[in-house]
Specification:
With 143 residues, the protein is an alpha/beta fold. 39% of the residues lie in helices and 23% in strands. Strand 1 and strand 2 form a beta hairpin. The relative contact order is 0.15.
Length: 143
C-alpha cells in the first residue's frame, strides 16, 4: 500500500492530520496548520518526502507543506488556491472536495490564516505571517 493511502486511512473522527514517510507515521488531533508548524519546528526531516492527509487544505497549509518539502497531499476538503500552490511547488495533490476558499468557523468570511497568506508566494514569509496571525489570537475564529 502506498504511503498516501496509509495516510488517508489514518484520518479518523479523532485524527485530523496524518503523515506517512516510509516506516514513520505521525498523527495529530490538533486543528488547522498546527501539526505542520510543529513538525517544521521540531522534526522537519519527517515532512521531507512525506505523504500527508488532512481534513482541510487551504493555501496556507499548502505553502507550509511546500516549505517542509512534502511529496504529496490529500485533503478531504481542499481550496483551489491550496491546490494551485501545491501544484506550483510540484507536490502531488488530491482531494475529496474542491472548494473556492476556506471559510472561518462561523462562515462569515475567509479563514484568518488564509487571509494572512494572500498575495504571498515566498514560503518563509508565508510561515512568518501564519505564525504572527496565530500569536495575535486571530485563530479564535479559525478555519
Amino acid at each position: 500500500m502506498k504511503d498516501i493511502e496509509k495516510a488517508k486511512l489514518a484520518l479518523t473522527e479523532d485524527v485530523s492530520f496524518s503523515l506517512v514517510n516510509g516506516d514513520n507515521t505521525f498523527v495529530s488531533k490538533d486543528p488547522g496548520v498546527m501539526p505542520v508548524l510543529r513538525l517544521l519546528d521540531n522534526d522537519k526531516s519527517l515532512l521531507t518526502g512525506a505523504s500527508v492527509a488532512d481534513r482541510v487544505i487551504g493555501r496556507a497549509a499548502a505553502l507550509l507543506m511546500a516549505l517542509g518539502e512534502v511529496k504529496e497531499v490529500y485533503g478531504e476538503v481542499m481550496s483551489r488556491p491550496g491546490y494551485d500552490a501545491l501544484k506550483r511547488h510540484d507536490i502531488g495533490a488530491d482531494f475529496g472536495e474542491l472548494v473556492d476558499s476556506i471559510s472561518n468557523k462561523s462562515k462569515t468570511g475567509l479563514c484568518p490564516i488564509e487571509q494572512s497568506c494572500l498575495g504571498i508566494d515566498d514560503l518563509s514569509e508565508a510561515r512568518e505571517r501564519i505564525v504572527s496571525t496565530i500569536s495575535r489570537g486571530k485563530e479564535t475564529n479559525r478555519c
